[in-house]
Amino acid sequence: MLILENVAQSYGAKPVLKDINFSLKAGQIGCLLGPSGCGKTTALRLIAGFEQLNSGAIYLDGEAVARPGACVPAEKRKVGLVFQDFALFPHLHVAANIGFGLSHLSGADRDNRVAEMLDLVGLTQEASAFPHQLSGGQQQRVALARALAPRPRLLLLDEPFSSLDVELREKLALEVRDILNQEGITALLVTHDQHEAFAMADRIGVMHHGVIQQWDTPYNLYHQPNSRFVADFIGQGVLMPARVLNSRQVEIELGVLEGRIPGECSQEGGCSRCDKGCMVDVLIRPDDILHDDTSPVLATVERKAFRGAEFLYTLRLAQGGRVQVLVPSHHNHAIGEAIGIRLDVDHVVAFRQ
Amino acid sequence: MKMLSKLLAVLAVPTLLAMPPTASAAEVVVYSARNEQLIKPLFDAYTRETGVEVKFVTDKEGPLMARLKAEGKNTPADLFLTVDAGNLWQAAQEGLLRPVNSTALKANIPAHLRDPDNEWFGLSVRARTVVFNRNRVKPGELSTYEDLADPKWKGRLCLRTSKKVYNQSLVAMMIWEHGEDQTEQIVRGWVRNLATDPFPDDTKALEAVAAGLCDATLVNTYYFGRLMEKKPNLPLAVFWPNQSLKSRDAGVHVNVSGAGVTRHAKHEKEAVRLLEWLSSDKAQNLYADENMEYPANPRVKWDARVTSWGSFKQNLINVAEAGKLQAKAVMLMDRAGYR
Amino acid sequence: MPEPESLSIPSVAAPPVGASSFTGRLGPWLAVLPIALITAVPVLVVLSALAHPDQTIWEHLWKHVLPELLVNTAWLVLGVGLGVTLLGVSLAWLTAVCDYPGRRFFAWALLLPLALPAYVTAFVWLGLFDFTGPVATWLRESFGILKPPPVRSRSGVILVMTLALYPYVYLTSRAAFLGQGRRLMEAAQSLGQSRWHAFLKVALPMARPGIVAGLLLAVMETLADFGTVSVFNYNTFTTAIYKAWFSLFSLPAASQLASMLIFFVFVVALLEYQTRASASYAASSRAAAAPSRIALKGWQAGLALAWSALVFGLAFVMPVWQILDWALNVFEQDFDARYLDFAWHSLLLAGLGALLVGTLALVLGYAQRLHPTSAMRVAARLSTLGYALPGAVLAVGIFIPVAWLDNQLIERLGLEGQVLGGTLAVMLLAYCARFLAVSFGPVDAGLGRISKSIDEAAQSLGVVGARRLWRVHLPMLRVPLLTAAALTFVDVMKELPITLMTRPFGWDTLAVRVFEMTSEGEWERAALPAAAIAIVGLLPVFMLIRHADHAHT
After folding, report:
1. Are C500 and B60 in contact (CB under 8 A)?
2. For C461, which of A49, A73, A150 is closest by C-beta distance?
């Protein structure tokens, strides 16, 4: 459906994208996730056709829409866009905004499609309201309906929830996902917010300095990060120093972890084999540690954050290392208190130091 | 949108693009720096009398001359009518006018009021004289333009700005008589004697004298006439300077409004005829009286209002000299700090 | 919070694909070059006189005239610039964002001074407040105050010009304030900023392009002004230009001075644009949220009312009262059927001029939006320089090439009389050269307020080119375009030198009547046509306000 092949882009001497490769199958929702300036928006604009491609190629439905020197203009790509600021036409009411890209249809067909879209996003009541009379969430849905109305081959969403209230974001993200799935839309989302990414996407590419560090499912990104950057950027957790005991065991301050220890240490550094005694860093997620009052291992509560159902405690270990742990919120411990913990590591993620 | 469609309809009017003045025999085209309300009655009278149509545009003299120059030999203008000899002299200098050999004009207009080469002719005389506050100036105090530079007038003088051509001509004539150095001393004296910054026009200067802000000023007489007509009770009076036969200076500074036939006139004969008519007895009163100026033709009787200010001896130096020296005069006044 | 990355796409380095795909790279230039030439040719004609410098006159001016004039001009520009910004921005803020008794009335009333020719207002002020006027006379006779504060002074001319020109800033900054909506201010205030702080830190910087657009117009008009400063006998740069030309008969020296003026204005305009380009304040469609006004209460409301009333009274009521008084005095003597013609001619010229100049400004602004390159920016700025030249100088610059073309046509084609000279088409072109700046400012600022994503949204929906202009930009630009047209309309109504020089025979306008009367100092009689200009000129101002307010409620 959507394929990016060796896409690279630079402005002057400054490279913005380096060798980007990924693809989306029909109906999939992809996401480019990364901090500011990682190049994700540039990638989106290249796919939309707002920027000229330097090198590589972009295919849509098997058609090469962008190659250096030859590109299909944005208005002919049949790519829908939802903008960060929504970019609704302030002089048009909701129905006219949604029908804006439907001028090729006859009057009746257009009205039907607009009605359909209004229904889809649940704004039938607001059809004749003007954008400034709508709430942020409603505006967002109008933008979505407008982009979907002409049945685009691909929908691009540029930080679509960033201008909304935090409480609204996750709810809307799920709503939007349902709408996209319902319509069988292939979509690519760009965001710096991993919650949005996890809520929406089937496939996520974590971007850093113009490079896709890892293109994978949300689950794998969390549990099998392939680099320190991804491990750090996605989810919570700490990297703890560990000593390799053998190919299935490493030892950390809290005890011995069992799992498949990568023979090769991680991609970073391209180091030689890690043998017994070699030092690595292991990723310890909050869900790798359980609170257990019976456990002999004690750690001191250094910080705590109330999350409703649970607390996120930051604990200091006896030898000074720190870990995070999620604990059901009826376990309310004071800062400075020592609590028992034990390891429950399903698999080991290790990077050479 | 209704507005818009109306405007579009107007745009489509074919006359918009081309309104070429068709060259008919019985017309004459005038470029005039003398304003419309002063010349239109004359031209109307001329058309009534001769059947010749007079077409004219008004503008300032500078743009009109630039226009004549740019149009070159295709100019529609036959006659250039303007105020001030300086402008007439400049037009002749730039080759915009042509000599006219007309006995009638020579007979009607005194030699000092026309171009020595007969390229232009004065049609009305404007006298720039002293007006004073009757309550504050003793009759014996006033004598000459030059005397107004005397310290006894300190803080008592009001002047119009040096940017007005009337003052430039006056100073140019003084340069002709006294030379630059002495004239500069005189102008510096005036500036020292000023009661307040120079005024933008003659009327304001007159009002200042009437209000007692200062005691005397230099103005063209018709401004005095206009103001007194509106407010007859003002304590103002005209004084004719430089009248003493014993002194070497020559009389009241006069300037002209006048006209010349353009170099590339299409209707030369008609233009000369109009010019001759303008200098004739019957037109001269109409020309001068409308603005309370003095007729250039010495045989013509003055307007009653003008007569009431008394008669005077004019400076008989050819007014063209003022044109020649105008640039010098302007620079001199700049040097002397006369704004 | 919006991610900064998406704002910093270097659009200059990489022009949007869509733009070039529908018009090509040459397209905008084909539109912009002829427009730029309309202004560039007259300016170049004026500058060409530089080739023959007049040494004597130049030395004289340099030594005896320029030092004073430069100081005077600098003070005037500084004073008027500060003055119009203070008046314009404060009043725009009050009427656009706040609510207080009389706000609805003042919203449009404060624009009315635009309809008065500034030099007529100046004369009224002089008449009323100078030594011989009623105010000074009353002070003198009632209180024995012999020397009232002199109105013929630097501060006097700054005050009067400020009162005449503040509506430019008022109009453009009001549009900017109306366009930015309340949410940003509310957001700033919710972050603990005081209202005053939020205004200074958020609303004001965001409105800067609008404010500066108006300020630039006011400054250019101040620099080009001859009429008003003459009334005060306040010598400025323009005075020197006229002196060199009319008194010293040296058009070359005048051109030298004019080119200095042009250069100065050009540099200022470019600098302004440079600083603006580095900070784009395009408000998104979201920001244009429903305005809820800040309701002023008690002494604050009283102060707002008093301030509005004071400015309105001084800038409009007082001069109009005097003009009407004079006009009635001469009404019977001077008013005749011809006034219908004068008014019709004025209306026709102003209407067509506004339409044409507005259209060209839109083309220019739009081309610059599609191709935001430095060359385009320079071309756009060049096209607006005509406003900074003294009118008579520009008029000559226009007349010379037209006459030259006429002569060529006559000789080559064997035509008779004038072909182009004395046609309305030439007049209208000349107005374009003069007033493009007046229209370009609001249109440019208006375009700047439309975020780039709006263009891209339309493009991604398959709507580009002329259809996008028609369906998206024109409706969104309605208020800026009306503003541009109304400003041009009243400016053409008041314009003198170009009208005088290029009008057909016997084709007089109201402004020409004003000239006929004032050229021999008959100011009272000039009041009649001046009043007519004011009355007819109010028409577009009314229309503008009705539409502008409608668009934002």
Report:
1. yes
2. A150
